[in-house]
Design a protein that fits this description.
By secondary structure, this protein is α/β, with parallel strands linked by helices. The protein has 13 helices and 7 strands. The model has no long low-confidence stretch (mean pLDDT 87).
C-alpha cells in the first residue's frame, strides 16, 4: 500500500469512526481518540509527510479532510450552514492541523494529545462562529451528537408527493437539494428531460448536469428555469429558519424570491412543506399559488407558478 493510499484510508477511517461524536462533550479528550488513532500512520510515514510538505503538495490532503468534515457535518445535521465562506474557514482549521503535525514531526516531539486538543478547540470555535445553534443542542453531558434525519427519496415517491406529471414539466428543470444520489434528476434525464440537480454533497464527476453547491452560493439568474423542485430541501430549511429564534429567515426569504424570479413566464416552483408565512405576500398578478394536500398528517405541497 502506498503512502497516499494509507493516508487516505486513515483519514476516511477517522471520519467514519467519529462521525457521530459530540465535539462539545466535556469528556471528549478522555473517551474519544481522534488524532491518537492516526499516531501509528503519522509516525510510520514521517519522512514522506515531510517531503509532501517541503514540496508544497499538502493542499490535496487539506482539501480532502475539509471535504470529509463537510460531509460528516451535513449528514449529522442537515440544517448546518456550509456555504463557501464557512467552508473556507473550515479549511483553515485543517490547514492549521496539518501545520501542527508537520511542525511536530520536524521537531521529533509529537504530543498527540495536545494536537488533538488544539484541533478540537478550533473545530468547536468554528462551529460556534458559523452555526452557533449546534452547541445549544449538543450539550457537554452527551457523548454523541444530536442527529437530524436527512433521507433521500425515490424518484417515484417524489413525483407522487409533489403531484408531478413528468411529461408536462416545463424545461429546463432544476432539483434543489437533489440528494447525494440525485434519484429524481437521473429519472428525469432518462426520460430525455433537460434536468439538473443541485446539492452540497453530490457526485458530479460523471454527470455535468449535477451541481455541487450550496443554494446560497448558487446564482439563480432571471427567467432561466422552466421548473424548480424542492422536496423537503430548501422549503424545509426555510421553514426551520423561520421557526428558530436565531433563524436566518430574512436571507432565506431573499433567496426564495430570487428562485421565483429565475422562473420563466409560466414556469413553476414545486415544493413541500408549504411556506404560508411568505406565500401570503406574493402578488397574485405575478404568481399563482396552488395547494395539494399530501395526506391528513403531512404538510401540503405548493406550486407557485410565475405568470
Amino acid at each position: 500500500m502506498t503512502i497516499e493510499e494509507e493516508l487516505l484510508n486513515s483519514i476516511e477511517q477517522q471520519f467514519e469512526v467519529h462521525r457521530n461524536s459530540n465535539l462539545f462533550y466535556r469528556n471528549l479528550d478522555i473517551d474519544n481518540q481522534f488524532l491518537l488513532d492516526s499516531k501509528q500512520t503519522i509516525c510510520k510515514h514521517r519522512d514522506e509527510l515531510l517531503r509532501i510538505d517541503s514540496e508544497q503538495m499538502e493542499a490535496p490532503w487539506i482539501d480532502l479532510m475539509t471535504k470529509k468534515a463537510q460531509q460528516a457535518f451535513s449528514r449529522c445535521n442537515q440544517f448546518i450552514d456550509l456555504r463557501q465562506e464557512h467552508l473556507a474557514q473550515l479549511r483553515v482549521v485543517y490547514k492549521l492541523l496539518w501545520k501542527d503535525i508537520i511542525t511536530a514531526l520536524k521537531e521529533d516531539a509529537i504530543d498527540f494529545e495536545r494536537l488533538q486538543q488544539n484541533h478540537i478547540h478550533r473545530l468547536t470555535a468554528w462551529i460556534e462562529q458559523t452555526n452557533g445553534f449546534v452547541s445549544t443542542i449538543n450539550t457537554p453531558d452527551i457523548p454523541e451528537a444530536i442527529e437530524v434525519i436527512c433521507a433521500e427519496y425515490s424518484a417515484q415517491l417524489q413525483l407522487q408527493l409533489l403531484q408531478i406529471d413528468a411529461d408536462t414539466l416545463m424545461q429546463p428543470v432544476l432539483d434543489i437539494g437533489c440528494g447525494e444520489h440525485a434519484y429524481l434528476t437521473h429519472y428525469l434525464q432518462n426520460r430525455q428531460i433537460e434536468a439538473f440537480g443541485m446539492d452540497r454533497i453530490v457526485d458530479n464527476k460523471s454527470n455535468n448536469r449535477l451541481i455541487c453547491a450550496d443554494w446560497f452560493d448558487f446564482q439563480f439568474a432571471p427567467d432561466q428555469w422552466g421548473t424548480i423542485i424542492s422536496n423537503h430541501s430548501f422549503a424545509l430549511h426555510f421553514s426551520h429558519q423561520n421557526l428558530r429564534k436565531d433563524g436566518n429567515y430574512i436571507e432565506y426569504a431573499q433567496k426564495y424570491m430570487e428562485i421565483l424570479h429565475s422562473l420563466k413566464p409560466g414556469g413553476a416552483f414545486l415544493y413541500t412543506p408549504s411556506l404560508p408565512f411568505i406565500e401570503q405576500f406574493l402578488q397574485p398578478e405575478s404568481y399563482q399559488v396552488t395547494t395539494y394536500p399530501v395526506t391528513e398528517h403531512l404538510s401540503t405541497t405548493r406550486i407557485v407558478r410565475k405568470r
